[in-house]
Amino acid sequence: MQSNGRFSKLQLVEIENAISSIEKQETKKRRLEAEQLAALASALQRVFGRGRPRPESADRELAYRSLRLEVATALNDSEHNAERLLSVAYLSRECFATSLEALHAGHISSGHLRVIIDEGSPLSASEDTDEAERRRCYEREVITFAREETPNRLRPIARRIAAAYSQETLAERHEAALKRRCIRIVALDDGMADLIAHLPAEDAYAIKDRVAAIAKRTITVSGGAMVPSFGKQSPAPTTDVAASGVAPAHEAPNVDRRSRDEVRADVFRDLLLGRTFDPALVDVDADADADADAGSGSGAEAGAGADAGTKRGNNPHEWDQVRAHVQVVIPAHGVPELVGYGPIDTATAAGLAAGARAWERVSVDDAGRVIAVDRYRPSAEMTRLLIARDLHCRAPGCRVPAIRCDVDHTVDAALGGPTSTTNLAHLCRGHHTVKHHTDWEVTQEPGGVVKWTSPTGREYRDKPPSRVRFRRTSDEPTARGKRAESGSTATQGTPVSHHDEF
Q1: In angstroms, what is the C-alpha Rg of the chain?
Q2: Pick from 36, 115, 341, 471: CA 20 to 30 A from residue 154's CA?
Q3: Which are the contacts of 92, defined by CB distance < 8 A and separation ≥ 6?
Q4: SS in 3 state form for 335-348?
């Protein structure tokens, strides 16, 4: 039986049974995964004894290799994956035992556990008493969020918490990481390859945003007649058609047969290869970049052969009119954060804020709730507060930045819903569509908590992420053994730069 976005009663019964079965299976799976990790940790202990496994001698190295091969063959997996599993097993039992217990109880998934271990790695390098205490504080704090957030949302939260407890500052780690900048190619099948650039996060996110803005303009110029990236692709045009620029008779000349991902990839390629755009496709208002979501750019024509790509225009600087936007949060008492990535060092954040065309001071209470926003350049106060509160799409698990989302009336304005912060929230275009055209129900509770009710009646509450970023951690040891500040009714001003341009 096929269905649109609305389910029949019979379909709901079948879906309810399926989801209930999945939930039970997931709980069993998590328990089994925890037991597997415990068994692997016991095997490691047999080889190395208590403490961190260190194959310091040739014999111990051989013993470890033997165990790794045994695990890999038992699982019918690679030795690389077996080594990763052994590492998680050791760290989860020796350094993050509470998280392993939470996995066994079904409260978190193995994905959550890996995030906790990965982001807590700076706190597991030493076995001294102070380091162990900082690690316990980190784990105790991060696991409360792991119970509520998806692994991808948990990662920047865990990274921020770990940075607060680490002895090594973010600036020191970032300086060391900068020395590992590189570009590499991974050859793939079917005449394809991955080009990987290892860059500072703010540069990588700015590049992605600028490419997306140019691609968005390309799609707009083509009339929006795009093949959905999740849909069935139409055959690519032949070389003759591409070279001649003549579209088939049944197809409008401006129909772009590429998916959105293909357009972004072509724009990225053409930027690096120095190809310019047709001026007719680049009609960019220099002041339009004040709107964070007003993507601009140019078009690349689909085609075959080495020269297929963008038309050459007369102005070599046309692409310079399209600027990248990133959103940066700089708390008065915490770690700065690049929205979508996670914590960054203070010097980088300050540099981004200094170069921003606009920044905002956000006032919050002790719980991290946004209570006021002041902006250097006047704008709609309500929009400013919502961006500061939401940071990203408010659908469960989604991390599309707020500057790329729609501001949605939780209760439709047409149905009497007020235009106020208690009835507005950011939703990405995909989840905005789901909200309005399926049986999902969305309500907003006090404090900006957005409640999603699934067609089967399950409830999922999404708390404002600003509570995590702006909340003051009190009475806990911070980096270098200092104590976090406590008290204070409202926090200091917090600059939030969401119109940084590159």
Answers
A1: 26
A2: 36
A3: 37, 41, 99, 100, 103, 113, 117
A4: CCEECCCEECCHHH
- Collapse the DSSP code of 281 into the 3-class scheme (helix H, G, I; strand E, B; otherwise coil) and give the result: helix
User: Which amino acid is it at 145?
Assistant: F
The partner residues of 343 in beta bridges, in order of sequence, read 337
Give CA–CA dist 346/330, Å, rounded. 8
Give start and end residues of each alpha helix (H) in 49-150: 58-75, 79-94, 97-104, 110-119, 129-146
Residue 207 near residue 357, CB atoms below 8 Å: no
Cβ(394)–Cβ(463) under 8 Å? no
**487/102 Cα distance (integer angstroms):** 32
Structure tokens at 216: 């968005």
Q: pLDDT for 129-146, tens place per residue?
A: 788 888 999 999 999 999
When pLDDT is cut at 50, 70 and 90, the band that residue 114 belongs to is: very high
Following CA atoms 473, 478, 481, 483 in sequence, which dihedral angle do they give, to the nearest 10 degrees?
-20
Q: Are 346 and 334 in contact (CB under 8 A)?
A: no
d(CA 465, CA 268): 31
Residue 297: phi, psi to the nearest 5?
170, -150
Instruction: Write out the DSSP string of 309-335.
Output: SBPP-S-TTGGGG---EEEEE--SSS-
Q: pLDDT tens across 300-314, in order? A: 332 222 233 333 334
Residue 124 φ then ψ, to 5°: -115, 15
The beta-strand segments (E) located in 190-300 are 193-198
Can you read off the two tokens belonging to residue 65?
Answer: 């290799």
| pTM tops 0.70 | no
Structure tokens at 66: 């033997």
Q: What is the pLDDT of residues 327-381, one digit of tens each?
A: 777 776 667 777 777 778 777 776 676 566 655 666 666 677 776 665 443 346 7
Residue by residue, DSSP assigns 71-82 as HHHHHT--HHHH
